[in-house]
Amino acid sequence: MSTLLVAEDVAVFSSHLLVHPASLTLQAGRPFTILGETGSGKSLLAQAIMGTLPRGLRAEGRVTVGDQRLDLASGQGHRALWGRTLGVLPQEPWLALDPTMRARKQVEEGYRLVRGLPAVQSRIRASADLAALGLGNAGDKLPSELSGGMAQRVAFIAARAGGARIVIADEPTKGLDVFRRDEVIALLLKEIEDGGGLLTITHDLELARQMGGDIAVVLEGQIIEQGPAADVLGAPRHDYTKRLIAADPSAWPERNAAPKRSAGVKPVLTAAGLAKTRGGQLLFENRDLTVLPGEIVGITGPSGCGKSTFGDILLDLVTPDAGTVTRAEGVARVRFQKLYQDPPAAFPQKVPIRRALNDLVRLHGLDGSRIAPLLERLRLSPGLLDRLPTQVSGGELQRFALLRVLLLDPVFLFADEPTSRLDLITQQETVELLAEVARERNCAVLIVSHDAELIRKMSDRQIAFGSPPDAAALAA
């Protein structure tokens, strides 16, 4: 087994140490997974190795790729490796993809500009790659027309198109249903069958288990356990690793029954006979729903089956083809809120988080003193408020999105994959907070998740959406 990459004493700094010196070795044909919670520093470690740290951060240490040795403090030498030797699958596919370029063209570029293939052959290869991941009808779609799972798959295909022998995948299964997750895992593993290298950064415990190979567990910028995945996950030594495994939804205790409702309680929202077609395909029809104050309703189903569209119709963000939605009288529209699956798309990219929250407080006459206790409750450092949305992790930004929604004191909250970006421990804490909010404030919650076990453990009742006629052609 040959060595593809060696990282030695890699550290990351801003004004202080963010990632403590860490070393790892990537072998040909053997996956390596960096596992840790949101904000633990796992992505920064990978970005330092890749040479793609955000502005304002610097790295130290050494990385050897083949016969090329890179001094990370110099910041030189990486660019020639990008695409050809080192490929990256980014955490935020909607930000990584060109918003003005259709899916097939984004994949074609890798074949044409990096591999140097003729235009016709590049197009053929790109079309075949898209079809192989169930995206045969998505080639002419813009990123804004794709669901989160579809955008993730397009980004994955584009990352591989340049022929890089080493792929660094940052949260590659985030937001995917179980079937698509397992499909991407199979594709990632296929990358190493012929002696390629794969470094995966994730908070997904099941992904780490299925990948096998070697694993490093990261906490607060330090590797606390490292070794064969089967050993680390099968017999963890560190208390944090044990806690991480115990936070998997399958290990959650069964919830207490929903509190009994007194007769005559009026629903927060009622839908009758909803139907929606998109792209010439039927998403759903004859859908009814009544949601009471404080009730938690869960929705499961594969990518592209219309779960998000259904919730958007309830919020009057999308017009149904048939049916009606009736919301509680006398309640301001602003108290019917949504938690988006991809918070980067919901935050202004060039506005610090503190200003965005203060603007909301000022616009709606809210109580700004509630921000501090919510920060503590969501395990968010006050120092993050002065950063841009692009300067915090995906999980931290999702928790800021929840904080922003809670400031509005919602009576109905449509949570669209609200934990898809969160590690298991933070996911459990966030779900428990959602349940507390539902009970304490009598807020109805409609939550969508690909994780059927999470929905079962959290919800008072469940709704299952089935597979659409052509899931690859539809945005969820």
TrEMBL record:
<dbReference type="GO" id="GO:0005524">
    <property type="term" value="F:ATP binding"/>
</dbReference>
<dbReference type="InterPro" id="IPR017871">
    <property type="entry name" value="ABC_transporter-like_CS"/>
</dbReference>
<feature type="domain" description="ABC transporter">
    <location>
        <begin position="269"/>
        <end position="474"/>
    </location>
</feature>
<dbReference type="InterPro" id="IPR003439">
    <property type="entry name" value="ABC_transporter-like_ATP-bd"/>
</dbReference>
<dbReference type="InterPro" id="IPR050388">
    <property type="entry name" value="ABC_Ni/Peptide_Import"/>
</dbReference>
<dbReference type="InterPro" id="IPR003593">
    <property type="entry name" value="AAA+_ATPase"/>
</dbReference>
<keyword id="KW-0813">Transport</keyword>
<comment type="similarity">
    <text>Belongs to the ABC transporter superfamily.</text>
</comment>
<keyword id="KW-0547">Nucleotide-binding</keyword>
<dbReference type="GO" id="GO:0005886">
    <property type="term" value="C:plasma membrane"/>
</dbReference>
<dbReference type="Pfam" id="PF00005">
    <property type="entry name" value="ABC_tran"/>
</dbReference>
<keyword id="KW-1003">Cell membrane</keyword>
<dbReference type="GO" id="GO:0016887">
    <property type="term" value="F:ATP hydrolysis activity"/>
</dbReference>
<keyword id="KW-0472">Membrane</keyword>
<dbReference type="InterPro" id="IPR027417">
    <property type="entry name" value="P-loop_NTPase"/>
</dbReference>
<keyword id="KW-0067">ATP-binding</keyword>
<feature type="domain" description="ABC transporter">
    <location>
        <begin position="4"/>
        <end position="245"/>
    </location>
</feature>
<protein>
    <submittedName>
        <fullName>Peptide/nickel transport system ATP-binding protein</fullName>
    </submittedName>
</protein>
